[in-house]
Task: structure prediction
Amino acid sequence: MEITSSRSSNLYSGKTTGQIVLEVVRAAIRRRMILDAVTPFYIFRTDTQQVLAKGVMGYEAAKNKANEIRKRYGLKWDQVSFKSEKKSSGSSGSYGRHPASSMAGAPSGARMDVSRRFNPSKGRRFRGYYDKHGNYHDLD
Result:
């Protein structure tokens, strides 16, 4: 295997393909461990979808907390699970209501709505606004 990048050739020079693959896999594992340590998790019952705990930081801590909750309430293994909490998408990919001044096309003072659904023909989400009389206007 030949690596053409100058940075990569210095980094991997003299190493076999197997050693390079092993190094890349180890780096991916380290990166995943760091992400798991700072990711908040929530614990829930699988049969009722009831949230039992939120904001547990790290994969191992969530696993231990889920096991503790399972023992405390006398639940079976398959009745308790945990997932990472969804991260907020930030201002760039958000949907919902926005002031019209933050988006082009609507008059100032109007309430802008951005749909969760993606409009493939436009390459963005459906958008529209309500005027002062309560009438809805599409911007797509």
Remarks:
- The beta strands are 40-45, 51-57, 80-84, 96-99, 111-119, 124-130, 136-138.
